[in-house]
Write a structure and sequence with these properties.
With 192 residues, the protein is an alpha+beta fold. It has a single domain, classed as Alpha-Beta Complex (Peptide Deformylase), CATH 3.90.45.10. The chain has 5 helices and 7 strands, in the order βαββααβββααβ. The strands form 2 sheets. It has a 5-stranded antiparallel β-sheet, sandwiched between helices. The chain has a two-stranded parallel sheet with strand order 1-7. Strand 5 and strand 6 form a beta hairpin.
Length: 192
């Protein structure tokens, strides 16, 4: 894996990422290497800020969710399958019921918490060929997109938790930022 995943506490994870143009150097190679890093880390999504690139790019392949969720419609299962690239994404609208789902993050290994998000989004983005899309997405795919989109806004899933939950996680988060965590993929920890 070429890119290590940034650990909690690294300043790049808190920056608002910059938009890119179709002539961004090595874009197609970067996208391919991000998919490689995501698969090697057993993730379903990865945002460029997580590999220390503060640009508005994230990738998703949520197919593992299609295999574990029995109550999905065939359309929702199909939505989850396959590689998806989001460049310069902008969530235009979040609607529908709010619902909880247990989320984790490659940058915060060992931490999984229920996060409340809207069930539907309307999103504008460019694909890897810089074709523009505006789509309405719901269910688990919408959640994965919201999670990765947050990374381009400098937001982590733990920011959505209550103050009480954040206090309970404080020690674990400190340990992650100090490199006191065991993972089976390469990570880059904040400098002391």
């Amino acid at each position: 894996m070429k890119f290590p995943i940034l650990a909690y506490g690294h300043p790049t994870l808190r920056k608002i990422a910059q938009e890119i143009t179709p002539d961004y150097p090595g874009l197609q190679t970067l996208i391919d290497e991000m998919f490689e890093a995501m698969y090697e880390s057993n993730g379903v999504g990865l945002a460029a800020p997580q590999i220390d690139k503060s640009i508005r790019l994230f990738i998703i392949d949520a197919e593992p969710f299609s295999e574990i969720s029995e109550d999905l419609t065939p359309e929702q299962q199909a939505q989850l399958k396959g590689k998806k690239v989001f460049i310069n994404a902008k969530i235009l609208e979040e609607t529908g019921e709010e619902w909880d789902f247990n989320e984790g993050c490659l940058s915060l290994p060992g931490i999984n918490e229920d996060v409340t998000r809207h069930e539907k989004i309307k999103i504008s983005y460019y694909d890897r060929d810089f074709n523009k899309h505006i789509e309405e997405i719901d269910g688990l795919l919408a959640r994965v997109i919201q999670h990765e989109y947050d990374h381009t806004e400098g937001i982590l899933f733990t920011d959505h938790l209550s103050a009480f939950k954040k206090r309970l996680l404080k020690r674990k988060l400190e340990n992650i930022s100090k490199g006191k965590v065991s993972v089976d993929y390469r990570m880059k920890f904040p400098k002391k």
